[in-house]
Amino acid sequence: MSLPTLYQLTDNMLELLSSDVTDEQIEAAFGALTEKSNHICHFLADLGGQVKLFKAEEDRIADRRKAMENKEKRLKQYIKEAMLRLELDKLNAGTFTITVSPSQGSLEITDAERIPAQYKVVETITTIDKAAVKNAIANGANIDGAAIVPGHTLRIR
Q1: Distance in angstroms (rounded) separating the CA atoms of residues 39 and 1
Q2: What is the pLDDT of residue 43?
Q3: How confident is the model at residue 153, as a pLDDT?
Q4: Does residue 156 lie in a domain region?
Q5: Considering the domain boundaries, does residue 79 fall inside one?
Q6: Which of 16, 17, 122, 144 has the most C-beta neighbours closer than 10 Å?
């Protein structure tokens, strides 16, 4: 036998409130609703703790990955510098063959202000100051395209 869901308990409570029942029946139904909500809150607290643990583990793994990527980059640069100093284009290193060849080069912008306009791209980003719009509407302004929609906030302490 499965336990009733919060949805079922809520429906049951609404039926009881709209019918002619005793206070004891309402109290019993409300007690079941309260107990179910308590169980859900305990489960939510457990989930919240697990989410924090997963986040911490994700951060730890990301830090290790970044450290390994940096080490990989440093070791490649180390080999490249040694080969360039020795003026070697190719090196047979056991089961590996390492080559260094000239590249097209990378662009370095030394003074962005001196670059001609034809090589510049202008980006326009439009954002809405939601706090200002909300305050204006709250103070009686009628702003097309915006409205304050009432909602509900759940707090569990």
Answers
A1: 18
A2: 96
A3: 83
A4: no
A5: yes
A6: 16
pTM greater than the 0.70 cutoff: no
**Hey, what are 41's tokens?**
């809150």
Is 82 within a domain? Answer: yes
pLDDT band at 14 (very low <50, low <70, confident <90, very high): very high
Q: Where in 36-140 does DSSP place strands (E)?
A: 90-93, 96-99
| Residue 11: strand pairing partners | none
**Domain coverage including residue 56:** 6-102+115-138
Query: What residues have CB less than 8 Å from 6, skipping those under 6 apart?
Result: 33, 36, 37, 40
Tokens (6 digits) for 70: 């940096």
Q: Would residue 49 count as lying in a domain?
A: yes
- Residue 120 vs residues 105, 110, 117, 135: alpha-carbon distances, Å: 21, 15, 5, 38
Residue 116: φ, ψ to 5°: -60, 150
Contact 133, 143 (CB under 8 A): yes
The mean pLDDT of the chain is 93
Tally the domains of the chain: 1
Q: Mean pLDDT, to the nearest integer, of 117-135?
A: 95
